[in-house]
Every structure is written in C-alpha cells, then in structure tokens.
Design brief:
By secondary structure, this protein is an alpha/beta fold. It contains two helices and eight strands. Strand 3 and strand 4 form a beta hairpin. The mean pLDDT is 89.
Length: 131
C-alpha cells in the first residue's frame, strides 16, 4: 500500500525570558521580520534555510533555566568585496548594538572568519563569514 507523503517542517526551539525581544534581536541579525507565534509568549523568526527559529517563554510549571552547553546557533554569510573579516566585524558591531556580548574576538580561520558571542539572553552564537 502506498503511504501519502507528509510534509515535515523543521524548526529550532529556544526558551527565552523575553521571546519578543529575542525575536527582534535575531530578526535584525538575519534581516527578516519576526512573526507572532501560537500564543502571546511565542515568536517565530524565519530561518534562511527554511523553517523557523521558535522562541517561547516556558511555562512556570515547566521552567527552562539558563544553562551553558555545547549547542550553539550559527549564522553564516558570504564575504563581499571588502573581505570576510570586514564583513564579520560589521556584523559583530550590529550584534553588539542589539545587545549581544562578544565572547572571543573575531579571527580568520581556513574556512572563513568567525566570532563567538552571547545573545542578549546568554545563548552561545557563532557568526561565520565564508570566503
């Protein structure tokens, strides 16, 4: 018997103390408009590769405390005529202006220019500019 194909959408889910503010931060970095989600405490940021970054305030009955970890979001861009480091430094400046914190200064690697930051709620964020 043939089984009907089911469309599956993928998303990244991130708990947030202030989902609207964090959606604005990622919307500005990705140059997209955040969308209201399924409730007043849920926002969706269109993800460039498809799907969404889902930001929500956890229920008080199921809290999600902030915690360090090895998982991080990575946003990537292509370098332009000014070079990967120049593009990255401009992106870092924009992120810092939006409330991010620089964890490590930018550096040139064999695969591109990268910098590690923390978003306004302390989540690890890698900005990567490919050559």
């Amino acid at each position: 018997a043939l089984v009907a194909a089911v469309e599956v959408m993928s998303s990244l889910v991130l708990a947030a103390d202030d989902p609207a503010a964090l959606a604005s931060f990622y919307g500005a970095l990705l140059e997209v408009e955040p969308l209201p989600g399924l409730s007043s405490s849920h926002w969706r940021v269109p993800w460039p590769a498809g799907g969404f970054l889902e930001l929500y305030a956890p229920s008080s009955s199921r809290p999600q405390p902030r915690q360090p970890g090895r998982l991080a979001l990575s946003l990537q861009r292509q370098a332009d005529g000014t070079g990967a480091v120049a593009v990255l430094n401009g992106w870092i400046t924009a992120a810092l202006g939006l409330g991010a914190t620089l964890q490590e200064p930018s550096r040139q690697e064999s695969f591109g220019a990268e910098a590690w930051l923390l978003d306004p709620e302390g989540n690890r964020l890698l900005l990567l500019v490919l050559p």
